[in-house]
Amino acid sequence: MDFTIRTARPDDYETLGEITVRAYRDDGFLAFGEDDEYADLLRDVAGRAADAEVLVAADEAGTVLGGVTFTTGDGKWADIAGPDEAEFRMLAVGHEGRGRGVGEALVRACVERARAVPGCARIVLSTQQSMAGAHRIYARVGFVRAPERDWQPLPGVDFTLLAYALELGNTP
Prior knowledge:
Oligomer: single chain
Protein name: Acetyltransferase
CATH architecture: 3-Layer(aba) Sandwich
Distance between the termini: 21 Å
GO molecular function, one term: N-acetyltransferase activity
Pfam families: Acetyltransf_1
InterPro entries: Acyl_CoA_acyltransferase (IPR016181), GNAT_dom (IPR000182), NAT_camello-type (IPR050769)
Keywords: Transferase
């Protein structure tokens, strides 16, 4: 690997926020465009870092290539995680980091963090149906679909988020 995974620093926040919005926008995952509320949430890395752990992948020069938000089930940023679970959200890799294993390394780092949480039985996530590349990463790491946990983020939103889970005692 020609990059490392580390906790995001304040000087990374703006860059990671833009990478995240750009990745979601360019891949067609922003439902209402770059100026919607979710885009603002994606940009607000400092807000996430205040209540969760934000990880970045950075190359040898310190350039941020991508990032992810990790939280436990009792955390403010948990969407579907229960009390004995961890969750990650907002996984994004910039164009410079694609094809280099950055996304998978960030997912694996979240799994490692979940294993370190006392009493944490599994790690979960939600993803859009069209995020096929991410689905392949999740499968490689050992996540399985948890369709009973699929959900709609807002009333009236015309898409369902797919849930995945990884039992921490059964990792390949």
